[in-house]
Amino acid sequence: MTERQDLVDALIHRHSTPATSLTGPAPDDVTLQRILQAAESAPDHGGLHPWRFLVIDGPALDRLGEIFVEAMRQKDPDATEETLERERLRAQRAPMIIAAIAREEPEHAKIPEIEQLLSAGIATHQMLLAARALGFGAIWLTGLRVYDDNVMRPLGLADNERLIGLINIGTVKDGAPTRGKRRREAAIERWTG
């Protein structure tokens, strides 16, 4: 099989690893640099580089858990201790979380915001593919906490930035399940003018 066929097969069979199936070690800095470098080849009309990534690991995961707890308290002042603890533990499921951030320049004359957002999404996806190719498991998680200003603000996002995902990454536990998507046959649809 050629390198190109390997790449296509990797894309066809891409899957996510549940965060609870990830353990240490997380990528070291040399490997992490390669993963982040993969994001840099994303299409980027105008060279705006409309994304950035925050690596959260070690003790910073504890702080992220507290941010999740505070965000839940703001959303639901009557949240039970069980609910708050579940929020806290969301930040502990993987040994590393990478906050994917889209940075938009709404007043840019030539590049619409949608193109900037799409570039950030592609950069994030390329990072996921690189992590998998380097032997790590990863999953792109969203949900209410990702879109919550009470999470974005403490992470230091600027007014023109938004969190688009929390990428949980680590070593896949032995025997861990993977979250494969139900695959559809690709349909060829031609426009004939």
TrEMBL record:
This is Putative NAD(P)H nitroreductase. Residues 27-170 form the Nitroreductase domain. Keywords: Flavoprotein, FMN, NAD, NADP, Oxidoreductase. The keyword Oxidoreductase applies. The keyword Iron does not apply. Signal peptide: none annotated. Its cofactor is FMN. It is an enzyme of class 1 (oxidoreductase). Its EC number is 1.-.-.-. Belongs to the nitroreductase family.
